[in-house]
Design brief:
With 353 residues, the chain is mainly alpha-helical. The chain has one domain. 76% of the residues lie in helices and 0% in strands. The longest helix is centred in the first third of the chain and has 33 residues, at 73-105. The radius of gyration is 21 Å and the shape is globular. The relative contact order is 0.15.
């Protein structure tokens, strides 16, 4: 596959992932009775689309510029952290301002500023922002992880156990105390996929061979079935919320096999990037970072206008409208601002570039 096609392929993957993120955040059947069709159909759909965060984390590791990290670590940190922190800071402030205005509008007193600071630091000002907090943690570990992988020693093998051991701890705590907070904000929850991405970048032949062997649709279907079964077991033991989580053993197995399948496709290209649908999804991938920040605010507005209570019709309508309006806002922002130096700086600051 040519370099251009590789870029399009991964942008296609990003596009699918960001559309899945929007769908996850749309109104759904999670609040319905657990015996209802709406709840059970959503649980299955949710487990099927529980792949985006792990794949985004994998891609963050896969696209690390290894030479830059090794030759100028400070420059790597400066660029990566700047790229993450500035948009995060801006969108967190916006989210907190909205929280404050809503509280005051309902006659509530001014909020506790310490709580707002905690929300900012933990990525809880808006639903998806914890992802940036995780990436910042993983970014700081990157130079050390590259050295560990290249040495191929015992420590390299130990790294693969960090996430499974952490998951085991989360299961124990969830079973003992029901739902615990912030478990997905700790780097260990997603470490496996970042480390996997770095490994694929550094040892491509090894992982493409594994992808050819294990990256098969039948294994994906099996892992998905296992994930759905685990969801029902977890629901009985820990309640609904954890049963829908992306951070579970079977779901991580599911995503791991999906990534192997993607690597297999990458090695054996069969995609027509000129089709209208693929071009559109690639465009969503190009704007995925901005969509990640913006969609939750657009979604909040769209929900006020689409009030149909029929599931899953309202979910699909809200998902479609949110996806399109978010995309159009970023596209037109680029058309208006990208040709000036100041405009380009604004686009970079809000992650619309």
């Amino acid at each position: 596959m040519s370099s251009s096609d590789k870029n399009k392929f991964w942008q296609l993957v990003r596009g699918v992932c960001i559309l899945a993120v929007i769908l996850i955040h749309c109104p759904n059947g999670a609040g319905e009775s657990i015996s209802s069709f709406n709840f059970n159909s959503w649980l299955i759909i949710r487990r099927a689309i529980n792949f985006p965060v792990a794949i985004f984390i994998f891609l963050s590791g896969y696209f690390v510029n290894i030479q830059r990290v090794e030759s100028n670590c400070k420059l790597f940190f400066k660029r990566r952290i700047k790229r993450l922190l500035i948009p995060y800071f801006i969108w967190s402030i916006l989210a907190n301002l909205i929280l404050i205005s809503r509280g005051l509008g309902q006659g509530q007193p001014y909020p506790n500023w310490f709580i707002l600071l905690v929300l900012f630091l933990l990525g809880k000002a808006s639903v998806p922002l914890y992802y940036i907090v995780v990436l910042l943690q993983l970014t700081l570990l990157t130079p050390l992880l590259i050295r560990i992988i290249k040495k191929k020693g015992r420590l390299d093998k130990i790294m693969w156990y960090i996430t499974p051991v952490y998951l085991l701890l989360i299961y124990i705590l969830n079973i003992s105390y029901r739902m615990i907070s912030l478990y997905a904000t700790v780097f260990a929850a997603w470490f496996l996929f970042y480390y996997f991405g770095l490994n694929v970048k550094l040892e491509q032949d090894k992982w493409f061979a594994a992808a050819h062997k294990y990256g098969r649709a039948k294994y994906i279907i099996f892992a998905l079935a296992l994930s759905v079964m685990e969801a029902y077991v977890l629901m009985c033991i820990t309640g609904v919320r954890f049963s829908l989580s992306q951070v579970t053993f079977s779901n991580f197995l599911y995503v791991f096999i999906i990534i192997l399948y993607l690597l297999k496709i990458l090695a054996e290209p069969k995609i027509n990037y000129d089709s209208k649908m693929n071009r559109l999804i690639v465009s969503f991938g190009d704007y995925s970072y901005g969509i990640f920040y913006l969609h939750i605010f657009v979604l909040d507005i769209v929900k006020r206008f689409i009030t149909i209570s029929i599931l899953p019709l309202n979910t699909l309508l809200i998902w479609f409208a949110t996806s399109i309006f978010t995309y159009l806002i970023i596209m037109f922002s680029n058309k208006l601002l990208k040709n000036s130096e100041t405009g380009q700086a604004v686009l970079e600051a809000i992650a619309f570039d």
